[in-house]
Amino acid sequence: MAPKSSKTTLRQSTLSFGAAKSSAAASKAKKASASTSKDPGSSSTRSKRAEKPSKVDADSSDEEVVDVDDIEYSKSESESPESEIEDAEAQAQAGPPTERTKGKTAAVKSEVSEDSALQSLEQKAKAEEKKPAIDVASRPHLNVKSTEYNDISRDTKLKMGHSRTIHGLKDQNRVDDILRIFDMDYEYGPCIGMTRLERWERAKAIGLNPPAEVYDILMTQEGLTKLRYSECVLAGQV
What we know:
The protein starts with 16 loop residues before the first helix and ends in an 8-residue tail after the last helix. Helix 6 crosses helix 7. It is elongated. It is built from eleven helices and no strands. The longest helix has 34 residues. It is mainly alpha-helical.
């Protein structure tokens, strides 16, 4: 019996790419459906986000919103550099505010001092006008040897060091010495430019307590009429 021959038979098969493509598309569709099922609100959120710009556009088209800061900024930008330069030059010419304030204060003070000086002069003139004239005839005569002058004469000799006056008059008496020491006593203020009676009244008015004996001497007939008694010892010399 003859042996059987073993032959392998090959079958030709056809590859179908369409099926593979369909399977890939199906897998992608499954993945997409799975993602949508996991995040159901994502589609609605996206749709809302897409709708928002349209609302903003509609609002902006209906009414335009203007910011105040933008207006101020635009105004500051609109200013020309020439105006800024002019303002800077004006400030430089005017100087710092402290100097201007000091100048104004000094001017005001000077005006106030001048006004006060004028007022004092006017008051003084009015007081002199109101002051009654002294009736010389009714005043007593000067008695050089009166005992009323003993105390002030003794104090005058102490101040003079019991020495005689160098530039005295020929008939100089103790009343001349009393008045001379009164002139040189700066406790009662300066003596130049006024009579002895005016100086005594000024010292009395400001509380310097001038000697009463000097006033009695100056209010006599000789004290009111004779220059050796009424005028300061430096009158006509300075």
